[in-house]
Design a protein that fits this description.
The chain is an alpha/beta fold and 268 residues long. It has eleven helices and five strands, in the order αααααβββαβααβααα. It has a five-stranded mixed beta sheet with strand order 3-2-1-4-5, with helices on both faces. The protein starts with a helix and ends with a helix.
Length: 268
Amino acid sequence: MCKVLGINRSSYYKRRSKGKSAREEENEKILKMINEIFTESRESYGSPRITEELRKRGLVCNKKRIAGIMRKNAIVAKIYRKHRSTTQSDHQREIAENILGRGFLRKGPNEVWTSDITYIRTSEGWLYLVVIMDVYSRKIIGWELDKTLRSEMVERAMKKALLERKVVQEGIIFHSDQGIQYTSESFRELLRENGFIQSMSRRGNCYDNAVTETFFHTLKTELVNRRRYKSREEARRSIFEYIEIFYNRKRIHSTINYLSPVEFEKLT
């Protein structure tokens, strides 16, 4: 082997007797921390987020080095998958103007709330999830599950958000798609009673509500697409843990300075 590589036997044995270099030992320690963070993130963090999380834990390290260690050890974040639309916008009801206009960067909480609905597959049948997000911190402030796509589901989620936020001011923008759940008279009355301004995406344009769409992509990639739920109740427990324990309180977001939504709101 030494002859093929063109090195002296003495050099080979000298290097072998020394064992691992200081950098190799340090890389092994870093790799252990990377694996811990990667597992905690449900295999969703790439090198930028892992680098930020390492810094929070007291290890300041170059992002290129972290990326190199991850690449060498085949640690790759899961990619997003597209999800099927649940929007039923083929109706004759009144449509609200798109007031939001993709203005997703906000100066404080309770300026813009967004909402959308997605589906969860279980062995018992479909389970539908509606969420309400405060765009400022990306926190899910209200959510609800149901086995049918009814407007009452959105109303229950909205009431939870109102209870969680204890809103007293008027003029919050509530943005959604043009689905029948958001155009129902009972839901619009709920918005009016609490002083909200309704805004809706243009038909077939998912980018008008990109922040909520992104949340669903994240949910599907990090949780739902990896599970086979035997029952709706199993899915319900799983989603509760993901939203309330992991996403809102632990998962860091690049758009809010690599903090979790709860951390971001506490610091601002």
